[in-house]
Amino acid sequence: MARKQVKMAVVGAGIWGENHAMAYANHPLVDLVYICDLDADRAKALADKVGCASTTNIDDLANSDIDGVSIATPDHAHKAPALRLVEAGKHILVEKPFTTEVADAREIIAAAKAKGVKLMVDFQMRWHPQYMAAKHYMESGELGEGVMGYARLSDTIHVPTEMLSWGSASGPEWFLFPHTMDATRWILNEEPVEVFARGSKRILKGMGIDCYDAVQASVQFERSFITFEACWIIPNSFPTVVDNQFTLYGSKGCIELDSKPGIAISSDRYKYPFASNSITRYGKPFAHFYESIKYFADCLAEDKTPESTGNDGLVATAMIQATLKSLTEERAVKISEVLG
């Protein structure tokens, strides 16, 4: 298959924007051209690290000859840069959550279709070896059809209080549920039907961060029912920043994933290294979350339609919107109510 060189840019020079930049900078078919961020110093610092230009003006990207762009802005700030770059004919990879409103997701999808550009949502759990294995065993028929499951993805309180400056504009539901809800839907190959949720808003709100402390959502899929949990108040003394567990019971078998990194360190305290810290060796960074980003570049280089589509992002957003509606109205909410 013929492969061409592609020119890329990254919008958002924060923690995850740096991962996108590192993935592109180490891809043999990518020429990383720009880092764009509203903070000029932050944009320049990352651009200097990966060896490209920096800008605070997204029009510089829109008016350039780049092929594709990663949008790694905060959760609530994906729509405007996505629409501007699609309008300019650029292919886009949007970080999860795709959007925080169903209507915004539909607008971006329609714009991308009208312009004929590729659109992918970065649901990196689809590239995690353990979740890929779960998908394989479901597809093979070894587990039968899905019946019941449990997916927990939570963070220590470090994330909303220290790591993110925009926690009040997000929450554990927007920051964490996109991972588990998309991965579960992908593994099951079933569509969500209804959500009933409970949540707590006390601890973080008392600290001036107006978001949920924790949310639990029971989601009925077409054949299976799954409990999703997300929490942002695990004590910082917990041995890892991310607490992740997935269990799925099928009609013929079950599968359990515990994503502790497999290495423990005893120094100032007993801890598991943060799974999102990359390891750089042999001149390249290594981590599963780079793979989805490199895959997007491969799709542009090979002119392939990406998996993990805008519609996948739309459905995940609808599931979370239904969760929030259930929390507010204290009732079960059909997915069709938010999809319209």
Blueprint of the fold:
Blueprint: E1 6-11, H1 15-25, E2 30-36, H2 40-50, E3 53-55, H3 58-62, E4 68-71, H4 79-87, E5 91-95, H5 102-115, E6 119-122, H6 129-140, E7 146-155, H7 158-163, H8 172-188, E8 192-200, H9 203-206, E9 214-221, E10 225-231, E11 242-250, E12 254-258, E13 265-266, E14 270-271, E15 279-281, E16 284-286, H10 289-302, H11 310-329, E17 333-334, H12 335-339
Parallel strand pairs: 1-2, 1-4, 2-3, 4-5, 5-6, 7-10
Antiparallel strand pairs: 7-11, 8-9, 8-17, 9-10, 11-12, 13-14, 15-16
Q: Label the CATH architecture of the largest domain.
A: 2-Layer Sandwich
Which CATH class of the largest domain applies here? Alpha Beta
Strand content: 25-35%
Spatial strand order of the main sheet:
12-11-7-10-9-8-17
Class based on secondary structure composition and strand pairing? alpha/beta
CATH superfamily of the largest domain: Dihydrodipicolinate Reductase, domain 2
Number of helix segments?
12
Could you estimate the helical fraction of the residues in percent? 25-40%
| Low-confidence residue ranges | none
Largest sheet: 7 strands, mixed
CATH domain fold name of the largest domain: Dihydrodipicolinate Reductase, domain 2
State the end-to-end distance.
41 Å
Mean pLDDT: 94
How many separate domains make up the residues? 2
Shape: globular
Counted beta strands: 17
What is the C-alpha radius of gyration, as a whole number of Å? 20 Å
Topology pattern, helix = H, strand = E? EHEHEHEHEHEHEHHEHEEEEEEEEHHEH
